[in-house]
Amino acid sequence: MRFSVGVHGLRARMSRRSFLKGTSAATAGLAALETALTPAGAAAADDPQVFGPEPVSITLRVNGAARTVAVEPCATLAEVLRGPLNLTGTKIACNRGSCSACTVLLDGVPVASCSMLALDVGERAITTIEGLANGDVLHPVQAAFIEHDALQCGFCTPGMVLSSAALLERNPQPTAEDVKAAISGHVCRCGTYPHVVDAVLAAAQARRG
C-alpha cells in the first residue's frame, strides 16, 4: 500500500500554532545544550570588573617602595607619577607616545607612561629617573651624560637615560648601532644624539671596569 501527501496536504496539517510550538521547543533545547556546554566561570569572564567614575585606590611599586594613591580610572601612569606621587622627573611632552619623553621602566622594560593607564600597571615594578641612582651615587649612564655633555634643555633626558640604562642591562657591550636603536624613539629637539651615543658607550665601558 502506498501513501503520498502533497504539499497542500502538509500545509493543511501544519497549523500556525503547531509551527510555533515546534520552534519554541527547539529553541529551549538549544539553550539547555548551550548551558550544559558552557565552561564554568565563562559567565564571570563575560562580565569584567568595572571601575569609576569615582577615584580608585591602587598601590604602585615605584622605585622600590609601595605607594598607595587614589586615581581616576582614566588617569595615565605619567599623570599619576607627576601628580599625586610628585615624581616630576617623568616628563609629558607629546602625550601620545610619540616622543618618549615620559619613558619609565616597568620590570626593566622601557614604556611610554603617557600611553598606559595607571590601573594597568598591576604588580610590575616602576623605575623613574628619581630611582635610577643608588642614593647619592649616580648610575653610570647618568654620570656619562654629564661628562659627555649629552643634554641641553634636558626635557628628553630622563626618558633617554632610562632607555639607555635598560639597554646596558640586557646588552653590557653595545655597539654604537645598538645605542642608536635603543634611543631611536626618543625625540631630542636640541640634537644631542651623537653625544648620547658617546655617553652610553662610555657608561658601558665604565660598568665593565
Summarize the helices and strands and which ones pair or pack.
Layout: H1 7-13, H2 16-37, H3 42-45, E1 56-62, E2 65-71, H4 77-82, E3 103-106, E4 109-112, E5 125-127, H5 140-147, H6 157-170, H7 176-182, H8 193-208
Parallel strand pairs: 1-5
Antiparallel strand pairs: 1-2, 3-4, 3-5
Helix pairs in contact: 5-8
Question: What would your notes on this structure say?
Answer:
The chain is α+β, with helices and mostly antiparallel strands. The chain folds into two domains: 53-131, Roll (Ubiquitin-like (UB roll)); 132-209, DNA polymerase, domain 1 (Orthogonal Bundle), CATH 1.10.150.120. The chain contains eight helices and five strands; from the N terminus they run αααββαβββαααα. It has a five-stranded mixed beta sheet, covered by helices on one side. α5 packs across α8 (193-208). The protein is elongated. The model is unreliable at 1-5 (pLDDT under 50).
Would you kindly provide a brief summary of this structure?
This protein is 40% helix and 12% strand.
| CATH class descriptor of the largest domain | Alpha Beta
Average of pLDDT: 86
Which blocks of ≥5 consecutive residues have pLDDT under 50? 1-5
Main structural class = alpha+beta
Given the structure, what is the number of helices?
A: 8
Number of domains: 2
Strand order of the largest sheet: 2-1-5-3-4
CATH architecture of the largest domain: Roll
What proportion of the residues form beta strands (DSSP E)?
5-15%
The major β-sheet equals: 5 strands, mixed
Helix content: 40-55%
In angstroms, what is the radius of gyration? 30 Å
Order of helices and strands: HHHEEHEEEHHHH
The name of the CATH superfamily of the largest domain reads: Beta-grasp domain
Oligomerization state: single chain
